[in-house]
Design goal:
Muramoyl-pentapeptide Carboxypeptidase, domain 2, alpha+beta, globular, binds zinc ion, 4-stranded antiparallel β-sheet, 4 strands
Length: 184
């Protein structure tokens, strides 16, 4: 994703946002962090993973994993199992609530002081494949390299040329991937 400053800001906002539901007198109105999540989500949370941290593909208790599209999660898990002897896959972002995605965009606009530049890196909530659970960010770099080379065997493709870590199901397994878009 974007620079370190953005992520520090995101963490601060995440902490502040986490305080608000309990202190709000109108707490029953549902102004919680994950208020934007569709109903029926089994795991609470907005899907945020702090900067510099990553989670396991097997962390079903984390909303970033639990709320992913099951087909995407299955494909990435299969790839990770096949790559296991050489690289370990870690997840730096998965499903995100609409509210969390908007927060990321707001912080990027603050960081770049340009909505146009921010939108090269962060989609608005209604366009982000992370919000629908159809995108996953993988690290470290050697795992990304492995997936860029072998991901199409599982239907997994790098979606954007400027994000080597961001993968979506964009092809039929065994078929070539479409050319990555130049940016978000
Ligand atoms: Zn991504």
């Amino acid at each position: 994703m974007a620079g370190k400053g953005l992520w520090i800001a995101v963490v601060v906002v995440a902490v502040l946002a986490g305080c608000s539901p309990g202190s709000s007198p109108g707490g029953a109105t549902g102004a919680g962090v994950d208020a934007g999540a569709p109903s029926g989500r089994a795991v609470a949370g907005d899907g945020s993973i702090p900067e510099g941290q990553s989670i396991s593909l097997d962390d079903d208790q984390h909303a970033a994993i639990a709320n992913l599209d099951p087909a995407l999660l299955a494909a990435v898990r299969k790839a990770a199992a096949d790559a296991k002897s050489r690289v370990e896959f870690r997840v730096t972002s998965g499903w995100r609530s609409k509210e969390y995605q908007q927060r990321l965009l707001d912080q990027a606009i603050d960081l770049y002081r340009s909505e146009e530049e921010a939108l090269r890196w962060v989609h608005p909530p209604d366009k982000s494949a992370h919000v629908t659970g159809k995108a996953i960010d993988i690290g470290p770099t050697n795992a990304d390299d492995w997936l860029i080379q072998h991901g199409s065997d599982y239907g997994l493709c790098q979606a954007y040329a400027n994000e080597m870590w961001h993968f979506e199901l964009l092809t039929t397994p065994g078929e070539p991937c479409p050319q990555p878009k130049s940016n978000a």
